[in-house]
Amino acid sequence: MKLLVAIIHRDDGTVVLDELAARGIAFTRLSTTGGFLRTGNDTLLMGLEESGIEGVLDILRAHCSVRKQFVDAGTMPFMGTLLHAPVEVTVGGATVFVLDVDQFHKI
Fold first, then answer.
1. What is the per-residue pLDDT across 89-104, written as a single tens digit (0 to 9) for each?
2. Cα 25–35–67 angle (5° rounding)?
3. How far lies 78's CA from each of 3, 9, 34, 36, 40, in Å?
4. Which of 63, 70, 101, 103 has the least C-beta neighbours within 10 A?
5. Torsions phi, psi for 95 (to 5 deg)
6. Domains in the chain, start-ordered, CATH in brackets?
7. What are phi and psi of 104, to 5 degrees?
8. Residue 24: phi, psi to the nearest 5?
9. Quick one: pLDDT at residue 10?
10. What ranges make up the beta strands (E) of the chain?
11. What is the pTM of this model?
């Protein structure tokens, strides 16, 4: 048994959640906020057999695109509040952790 933790951009969340549900993959969704841009993320928790990991990774690869976006530099924690010029940053993609699970109980 594995615990897959996937952190994805909120803009990618709806299509990923729909695809997981359509394939019958159970998940728990937590609304989280990224530390760098302080934008919305979805953190997904899934208990899976090892054979199911690659299928979930395929869904994430298909729907969590990396893209460029302009943000106001004044909203970025390290830029201060005096500079308000737009800055191009990379957003999206997915950060995925796969952890071994010693026990799994569904009560």
1. 766 789 999 999 999 8
2. 65
3. 33, 21, 14, 9, 19
4. 103
5. -110, 125
6. 2-100 (3.30.70.120)
7. -140, 125
8. 75, 25
9. 86
10. 2-9, 28-33, 40-48, 66-72, 86-92, 94-100
11. 0.78
